[in-house]
Amino acid sequence: MQNKRHIALSVNGERIESDIDIRMTLAEFLREDLGLIGTKIGCNRGECGCCTVILDDKAVYSCTILAIEASGRTVTTIEGLLNNGELHPLQSAFIEHDAVQCGYCTPGMIMSLKALLDREPHPSEEDIKTAIDGNFCRCGCYPNIVNATLSASEKMLQKGDESLNGC
Amino acid sequence: MGVDKLLVKGTTPPQLDRELTVIGKPINRLDGYEKVTGNARYTGDLKIPGLLHGKILLCPHPRARIVKIDVSRAKELEGVKAVLTKDNTKGWLTYWYNVPQIALPECITYEGQEVAVVAAEDIDTAQKAVGLIEVEYEILPPMTDADEALTKPLPPIIADENYPLRDNIDRKPCLIERGDVEKGFAESDVIVEETYTTPTQCHATIQTRVCVANWDGQQLTVWDSTQGVWYSKGALAKSLGLEPEKVRVIVKYLGGGFGSKAWAQRISYYAAKLSMATGRPVKIERTRREEFLAHSHRFDCKFIIKMGAKWDGTITTIYEKAVLNIGAVSRYDPMSTIWQTSNLYACPNVHLEQMGVFTNRGTTGPLRAPYNMPNNFALESHIDRMADALGLDPLQFRLKNRATYPRTHIRPELKDKEMKLAFSSNKLDECMKKVTEAIGWERRKGGREASNGAKKRGIGMASFVAHQGGGGYPNNANADVSVNHDGVIRLYAGVVDIGGGQKTIFSMIAAEELGVAVDNIDVIYGDTEDTRYAPSAHSSRCTAEMGPPVLKAASEARQKLFEVAAKMLDVNAGELQSKNGDIYVKSDPSHSISFKKACLGIEPNNPIWGSGSREANPEDTLFSSFGAQAAEVEVDTETGEVNVVKIAVAQDFGKVLNPKLCTSQVYGGIEIGVGYALTEEGVYDKKTGKMLNSSFHEYKIPCSLDIPIIEPFFVESEDPGFAYSARGGAEVVNTPTPAAIRNAIYNAIGVWFNDLPITPDKIINAAQAKKEKVV
After folding, report:
1. How far is CA B131 from the centre of its chain?
2. pLDDT at position A90, please?
3. Record: contact A87-B39, CB cut-off 8 A
4. What is the CATH T-level fold of the domain A4-80, as seen in this structure?
5. Is A98 within 8 Å of chain B by CB?
6. A47 vs B34: CB contact, 8 Å cut-off?
7. With a cut of 70, which residues of chain B have pLDDT below it?
8. Of A25, B308, B454, B714, which is the most exposed, with the fewest CB atoms less than 10 Å away?
9. Which CATH architecture has domain B436-469+619-775?
């Protein structure tokens, strides 16, 4: 049992407790123990970005973070973006702008951009490109990804304005 | 000229004779929701009870002989279920395309070749077991450079003595010749000769290869990562000595292919064999490093081009020699580089030579325009060089010399036949005009002088021709459509959606033909069960090959349903038409019945069937796509960085089935082309022959910051051989990108770069040399 440790964390709003192997990465924990297979592994060494999740409020490579490091913290994965079955504006915009081809980088890409929109609701094209410069898309969806993000940001701001007006 | 009938067996289906309601519309891809929610289940996401994990021992040397393997310690490890080596798998062959390869050989011919395979209860145990295998190698000096290999009096021993097909290919030049080259050069006013080199390029699919194989004693089910389930099925059956009916291959989602997954994957053979040995399902997943080492890449090439022309700008003569380093195992086409040179320009005197050289540099195979992009870089670079020597505008020089008909057939056995073929359609002129207008071609003149400081701007272009789909073996294409009593429409298409949007495109064709909405079609795809033979999604062949049979199948089902509906409407079937979910009388559209209601006339449990099969391309026509690109770059002469500012892209794909998906294909092509031009290069140690940059940190693919503004244009043309005239549009896009960028760099700083990739060190050295020359 010396290789095991107890962790408690929040994953997609749900409190999770588990005894896990201390060598396990956060990516492995999410995929194998929690079955959250939306988080992909493309290199397992912090190069490609497709395992990106949001830890507290930062986009991180979950393959280079140990699961025990996430203890006591909040993790959001692609599965956590659906709100009562409704797509996050980024997800809808990705479909509408065809910012997806093979789809393997998509969950990580969306998580990097979600973290961006959380801290900067009105990003410039350059902000967007910089936010995903650690997420490779070999299918080359980049121009569509930038446009999808701009459109999602606009929609979210509009929605925000509407809800303010409604007050 | 060209063909006037759809390339299908049997009669051409009747024209729809109404406006299109689905085709040509920017419909969202049908699997977008699954992909953006993380619900898409790729092979690596499968959970199967009793799963064993496989791990492969890769040889660390590019050339070696296995003297002895001792697996006793690995076998003793708790949790190890099977260990395979050459000693217990004698005679076992795998296939890369149809090229047989010994599964676990004695003679190692490339770094990363498989030496032993282990199956264990978990991946840690499998990994540990691989580490416990003791191998004694006789390490032999590798031969990784094609030029060097050519200087040796005898071919280096690079493979097991019985490596098949090698003797037919190794160092055997393939020639395309016409006219009199000597006479042609004698009559030329200007002759320019240059040498060009292109690097090893890796596919770098973001999903690493993964396979789960399950042998249940009767049937082998393989969840694969292949671009072609039917290719894979046949190859696995052959390798494992099974009847093809006993093998089922499934790929629902694939994380990128670009040619590297075009055939059965090496790991799939091992996973299947281990499953048969243990009676349990086995999963093998490559690591990123293994991907770089153990899978096919784009061959590095050398091109010598000598071209002669008259002062009026007429090209009189082309001599080309292409040498391809095809590694230790290759899916090799003997004339696919020089084919483009022969057919892009009208030149009466040519001597074009292509030669493949076996070496110990990995394995090679298709990568998004495998032959066309390297050759196009050399040819289109040389065209600019030639125009410069003649004092001509490169655009005018191209327009003057472009071929109006092709000279050389794609099939090597027909290459010596004197041919005056027809292109099925060709709008290259218009493509060239579009891109040069969009980039502001007139700014090209004097642009260099106008740039201030260290950053110089320049503009360049390139054009291309690419062959499209053959339709014959091994790419026979079949599709079926069923319409049921309950109104359910099923399309059976045994292709994989590799991200190109195959599922969406073929649903759109079926929906248009039937006259229903695209989401009324239930597609059975990516599975050899229930589907008939279909090609692999590579070589931009899917639309060109599967489009016609899908159209035929759907149209046949519609005509049968019209027979049913005719009785209900009390008219003749010939008077009917369908659109937007209704079947109506052409002369009186108000006299109609809904598609769903008409289906009630179909006997329950006895659905209507339509089927289609592709006819092979006729010999007298060449089915090609065309295009041109113009690039604007900014070159920093101090840091050596090249910033590609903009690329204008014009493609003649025939017809655009879905502009949204077609635009995505354009973006994808530019990504690979920019990488090939500026950053991507497999680097190998000269002495040991080992790859030095097997990671994304060291092998640089473009990221979000490297992609230019891309302005696409689709120049549509009529091509009745294909479904709604649509040919393929994937790999053709990147073909001219590197040459356009290179020609723009010349325009910016006045230096010709003949060796890809054009990295900052090359720019700085050239800028420095130029400065010294001026001083």
Report:
1. 36
2. 98
3. no
4. Ubiquitin-like (UB roll) (3.10.20)
5. yes
6. no
7. 1-2, 153-165, 418, 446-451, 774-775
8. B454
9. 2-Layer Sandwich (3.30)
Query: Which chain B residues are closer than 8 Å to A148 by Cβ?
Result: none
**Dihedral sign for Cα atoms in the order B4, B8, B9, B12:** negative
What topology does CATH give the domain B143-198+300-420? Aldehyde Oxidoreductase; domain 4 (3.30.365)
Give me the helices (H) in B262-370, please: 266-278, 288-294, 338-344
Average pLDDT, chain A: 95
| Chain B residue with Cα closest to A109 | B36
Considering only CB atoms, which chain A residues are within 8 Å of B709? Answer: 143
Tell me if chain B has a CB within 8 Å of the CB of A81.
Answer: yes
Question: Cα distance from A113 to chain B (closest Cα, Å)?
Answer: 13
What local confidence, expressed as pLDDT, does residue B1 receive? 45
Residue labelled with tokens 């979210």: A156
| pLDDT recorded at residue B645 | 97
Pairing mode of beta strands B114-120, B80-85: antiparallel
* Domain covering B32-40+475-613: architecture: 2-Layer Sandwich (3.30)
* pLDDT band per the 50, 70, 90 thresholds, residue A161: confident
**Cβ contact (<8 Å) for B664 and A101?**
yes
CA distance A39 to chain B (A): 7
pTM summary value: 0.96
Q: Which residues of B touch A106 (CB under 8 A)?
A: 35-36
Structure tokens at A7: 């962790």
Task: Say whether B86 sits in a helix, a strand or coil.
Answer: helix
Q: Which amino acid, one-letter code, is at B668?
A: G
Distant-in-sequence, close-in-space partners of A120: CB < 8 Å, separation ≥ 6: A127
CB contact under 8 A, A98 and B36: no
Contact B668, B653 (CB under 8 A): no
**Domains in chain A: boundaries:** 4-80, 89-166
Cβ atoms B729, B667 nearer than 8 A:
no
User: Which among B306, B498, B463, B499 is positioned nearest to B372, based on CA atoms?
Assistant: B463
Say whether residue A100 is in contact with chain B using an 8 A CB cutoff: yes
- How far, in Å, CA of A113 to CA of A120, rounded? 10
> What is the C-alpha separation between B148 and B153, in angstroms, rounded?
11
pLDDT > 60? residue A167: no
Number of Cβ pairs closer than 8 Å across A and B?
Answer: 165
Any CB–CB contact under 8 A between A51 and chain B? Answer: no
Residue B586 has a pLDDT of 96
Which pLDDT belongs to residue B2?
A: 55
CA-to-CA distance for B679 and B674, rounded, in angstroms? 8
CA dihedral B235, B236, B240, B244 (to 10 degrees): -80
Measured between beta carbons, the chain B residues lying within 8 angstroms of A137 are: 206, 671, 704
Residue B775 pLDDT: 61
Gap from B219 CA to chain A (nearest CA, Å): 28
Across the interface, of B32, B288, B710, the residue whose CB is closest to A43 is B288
Which of B37, B203, B503, B647 best tests the A interface by mutation, with the highest count of A CBs <10 A? B37
Over residues B536-547, the pLDDT tens digits come to 998 888 999 999
Q: Is the ipTM of this complex over 0.95?
A: yes
Q: Which homologous superfamily does the CATH classification assign to the domain defined by A89-166?
A: [2Fe-2S]-binding domain (1.10.150.120)
In angstroms, what separates the C-alpha of A121 from chain B's closest C-alpha?
20
Would you state the pLDDT for residue B450? Answer: 57
Beta strand B478-483 with B608-613 is antiparallel
**CATH 3.30.365.10 in chain B, residues?**
32-40+475-613, 51-142+203-294, 143-198+300-420, 436-469+619-775
Shortest Cα distance, chain B CAs vs residue A152, angstroms? 14
Give the pLDDT mean for A91-102: 98
**CA count, 13 A, side-chain hemisphere, A46:** 7
